[in-house]
Amino acid sequence: MAPEVTTLVGVALLLVVCSPGSWALRIGQLHVPSPIRNGSVKDVILDCDYSLDPGEKSEGLVVKWFLNQETNPLPVYQWIANKIPQDLGVLRNRVDLMYHATDQPSTRHRALRILNPTIELSGEYRCEVSSFYGEDSKTKKMIIYVPEENLELTQSKTTVEGQVRLSCEADGVFPKPEMTFIKRSIEYGGGKIMDGAEVRVTDRKDGLFDIEADIVVDEASLDEGAQYAFGCELSIPDANYTLIEWENYEAISAAAPLSAGSLSLLALAAWAWLWSTAAARRL
C-alpha cells in the first residue's frame, strides 16, 4: 500500500475513534414519561440509557442533565463516576440522589428520580454523557399539564340581524392551550372546524393560562330546517389533551325577543280588553 494511502487510512481511523458520538459511548434511549397530570404522581423517572464498549472503563465519565424551558438550557444534575451526584438549579432538593438506575458502577446514577413533579418542571430535558473515549447527547420533552377549571360555551344575538355569536372560555390551563369551534349536523353527525374565530390567551401570574374565543355565525349560511350543534374544542397540544363542550343551535327567529312595536300592540290589546271588561260590568 502506498504511504499516502496508509496515512489517509490512519487519519480516518483516528477520526472515527476520537470523534464525539462515536460507538465507544452512545446513548441508546432517553426515557421520559408521557404527559402527566399535575399532582397525580409522587415521582417520575427520566433515564439516560447509554452504553460503553465492553473494554472501556469509566475513566472521565460525566453525566449531565439540562432543562430547557425557554431558550437557554440550564444544568439541573451532574454525576461524575465514583462520586456523589449533584442536583442543581430548579431540581435542587427535588431529586432522589440515592436512586440507582443499575448496579453497574459506570451507569449507577445515570437517571433522575424527580420527587413531586409540578408544572414548573415541564420542558425539554437533555442528557449529555462524556468520557475520555467519546461523548453523546439526546433531548426529549416532559410535560406536566393542568386541565381546565371550567369550559363554558354560550350563544347570543348580535346587533346585526340574522347573526349569532358563539363565546367560549376556559380558565386555569397549562401548558398554553388552543381553542376552536366546530359545527355538526345533529341529523347526519360529523363535524367541521369553523374558520374566523378570535382567540385570546392570558398568561396568569401563577403560570397557568386563561383562554377565550368568539365567532359570529350567519344564519343564512345554515341549511334551512336543519338542526345543528356547535362545539367548543379546548386542546393542549403538548399534552395530547382535548375536551369539547357542545350546545344545540337555537334559531334566531325562535329565540328572538319581542320588538318594541310588538310590545306596544300587546299593551294596546290588553288595555282594550280591560276597558271592554269594565264596560260589561257596568251594564
TrEMBL record:
Source organism (scientific name): Frankliniella occidentalis (Western flower thrips)
PROSITE patterns per UniProt: IG_LIKE (PS50835)
Gene3D superfamilies: Immunoglobulins
Key words, A-Z: Signal
SUPFAM superfamilies: Immunoglobulin
Designated name of the protein: Butyrophilin subfamily 1 member A1-like isoform X3
UniProt keyword annotation of Aminoacyl-tRNA synthetase present: no
Span of domain Ig-like: 3-145
Extent of the signal sequence: 1-24
Entries under CDD domains matching the protein: Ig
Organism taxonomic ancestry: Eukaryota, Metazoa, Ecdysozoa, Arthropoda, Hexapoda
UniProt-listed InterPro entries: Ig-like_dom, Ig-like_dom_sf, Ig-like_fold
Gene designation per UniProt: LOC113209502
